[in-house]
Every structure is written in structure tokens, then in C-alpha cells.
Prior knowledge:
single chain
Amino acid sequence: MTIAKETASLLEKLGVAKDALSGGDLIARSPVTGEQIAALKQISAADAGKAIDAAHKAFQAWRLVPGPKRGELVRLLGEELRAHKAELGRLVSIEVGKIPSEGLGEVQEMIDICDFAVGLSRQLYGLTIATERPGHRMMETWHPLGVVGVISAFNFPVAVWSWNAALALVCGDAVVWKPSEKTPLTALACEAIFKRAAKRFGADAPEGLLQVLIGDRAVGEVLVDHPKVPLVSATGSTRMGREVGPRLAKRFARAVLELGGNNAGIVCPTADLDMALRAIAFGAMGTAGQRCTTLRRLFVHESVYDALLPRLKKAYQSVSVGNPLETSALVGPLIDKAAFDNMQKALKEAQAHGGKVTGGARFENGHAEAYYVHPALVEMPAQVSPVTEETFAPILYVMKYSDFDEALDLHNAVGAGLSSSIFTRDLQESERFLGVDGSDCGIANVNIGTSGAEIGGAFGGEKETGGGRESGSDAWKAYMRRATNTVNFSKALPLAQGVSFDI
Ligand code: UN1
């Protein structure tokens, strides 16, 4: 069976209408072979505006449904995802080129956030606060916010949507989703899955609660600029965030930005090198280096450099790269030619700055339009460009350090601030790394790689990563509006701060 045929059959099983898949000009391709798998119709900017209006109408009804009941819809969504995990996981592998366990893992991440959100639907807590006035009560209430706009990237085409959607839905919001143009099919599959859950939920799930906008940049701009969208959660490059952020600020809308990462690890003298090696391999080569959380920079202490480097090189030389649908390769293809070109450009620049490159070559794997590359390990004499920039490809820059403080400084001396890790058995080093003047990232790990976070924690980062937090912990608060309420149940009207105003 060709990939196009398999895709059509998967989409049918997932409930996507056949006529949505042809006759349009948005060409969906599988990076596995580079072949076209669908030609989708795109929504016009005017229709995108109408879809947002419809979502707003749905929000006005949905916000009146009690939180725990809203949770029931997300429970059903999780159930549908469990039932269709194999098909959706496979579709992720086809559309993004992820290996099977990562395609399935992404769907598992969706199921996990649904479970989390169901529990959360009974825990949208506000505080009761001590008031200085007798006979008064002060509290805070969390109310649904409105339409939540979600702009997602190709590399986690379904999980990142679900982090946002599951929280937004239990928080009483409607969702308008603009998926990456590189991954429209998995978005249509999610829409179909959601619709089934909504149908099972019944009439209390208003029509239009989820809108999927298949379209280009102009459609994304409608979402970003629409006055009825009080929050946009956008995942993508820092360049994209630099455009989206100010536009949202201009109309005082909230932004949850999850932008670039230039994640680093530090390997200390006491590190368990076996463990570090495995964590580095997955962090840097896994998902073909196309996670926001991918390990891109490694600082290795001079006392263990010669022990670690040959082993790391060997891992790079022996890692299996290949067709994720037909082989048990650990690394699949890059998403497209542009990703490959960027990778080659960075490697050339690294070489010009004295970098010694292992790997990095492309092979067609029988498909002229597919971009399979051997992950690249680059020994760098110093942290200079391109090390300081994120290149969305499997390149790991390795640098030697002698002093811990110097390593920390270098670690923090880049624009992005998403994820970080340290490999050490020295408590002083690990605590310093996690402490106030340690890693400046939103995620800081000890003896674990930079990627593969669980959904229970808040996900996001500082500086040029954008500052947003999605997923677990109290990230839900961004999806609701907080009201502070003071109630006077006395017969007097005392003013705060001792002010008197007697008329
Ligand atoms: C992303 O790359 O945009 O921590 C998200 C991780 C995954 C999510 C990555 N749980 O690697």
C-alpha cells in the first residue's frame, strides 16, 4: 500500500470526511518519502473570521456549563483518543516522520493531558483572602475567558494542541486552532475525534466549540488580530513570536508563547557516563532533533571529555536512520528540504569557526524528495555562532569546560531559555544548577535529558522562548480570568486604608 493510500484509510477510520482531502491547493506531504498525500482546501480570511465568531457564540453557552461537567467532555475526548491511539499515532508518523514509539507517545501525551484536565475540572480553585474590614469576605473567582486561539507547529502537531484544548475546554473556553501548514491531516483527525466526543457528550456541547482553520499565514493573522480572541497560545520559532507577541500586546490580548529552545546539558566530573550517554543520545538525536526541547549544546568537563567523546561519536556513527514506517530505525527524516538546508548552513558555519563535524550527511533512502540525515556531532572550540542559535535539526555542539561557574555562564549565554540539564552526582553542583543563579530556563533537570517532559509540570521557558506556560501545574490560570470579590455582610460601610468619607 502506498503512503497516500494508507493515509486515506487511516483518515477514514478516524472519521475525516473524504471530500476534505482533495481538490484544494494546500499540499500535504509525508517526509518519509516526500510524496503528496492530500490536497486540502484552505479557509479564506473572511471565513476564518466567521469561524471565530461562531466559536465565540459557542463560548457564551459553554461557560455556563459547570466545570466538572465540562470535564466530562474532556474525559470522553481522552476515551476516543485511547480507542484511536494506534491510528492517530501512525498518522503522526506519516505526517511528521516520527518513529512509531514517538508517534504513539505523542498520542499518549494527549491522553495524559486529558486525564489531568478531567481532574482539574473539579479543582479550578480560587482563594479566600483575609480582609481588613469587619463583616466582610474577600475571595477570588475564576471565570471562563473566551475563545482561545491555538497556533501549533509541525513537530508536535497533536500533543501541543491537546495541552491547550484540554485546559481551555475545562476552563469553559472555546478553541480555534490554526495548525502548521506542514501537518494539516493530523489536525483534521483531531477535529473528527473531538466531534465524536462532543456528540457523545450531547446537546450541552455547543456547535462550534472547536474550529480548525486549515490555511496559511493570513489565516493565522486573523486569529491573532481578532478582538474576540482574548488569548493566543502560539508554538513555533522565535521569529514567529516576535511578530505575534507585539500584535497581541497591541490589543491587550494574552499570549502564551512557546518559541525556540537552544537547550544545553552540562556533564560534570562525577556524572554517571552510561546514563549521560543514553540521555544525550535521545535528547540530541531523537525526533531527528526536531523538538523544542532537543539537546543542542553540551558542556563536558575536561576530566571526562576523553572518556565520553569517543563513546558519543560511536553512538552517532551507529545510530540507525531510516524509514520510520517500515524499519525499526531510531531516527526518521527531517520534515523538508528547508530544514535540511538550514542544517547544512549551520554545519558549514560551525566548520568555518573551527568545528569538527561527525555525521551530518544526507541520504535519499530511495526517495529524491525525502531528507534523511545522519545526526551531526560537532566539537566546537568555543560557543560562537551558530552554537548560539537554534537550528531545528539534529546537530549537537560539544564544548569542553574546566570551571563550573564558567560552564553555567556559557549555559545561560544564549537567547533562548527553554530546557536544560546537568549530569552530576555532586549535590552542590546539582543544587547550584537548580538554584537562583543556576540554569535560567523554564525546565531544569538533573540526570535526565532536556526533552521528553511529562504533562504534569508547566511547560515553557524564559527569555526568547517567550515566557508562556502550557500543560500541567497551574498553567490553567492563563485560560481563565480572575475576579477579586469583596462581600460586605455587615451593616456598616468601613473603607479600606482607614479612609473616611462621611456624607
Ligand atoms: C515541543 O517540542 O514543542 O518535552 C514540545 C518534550 C515533549 C514536548 C515537546 N513532551 O520533549
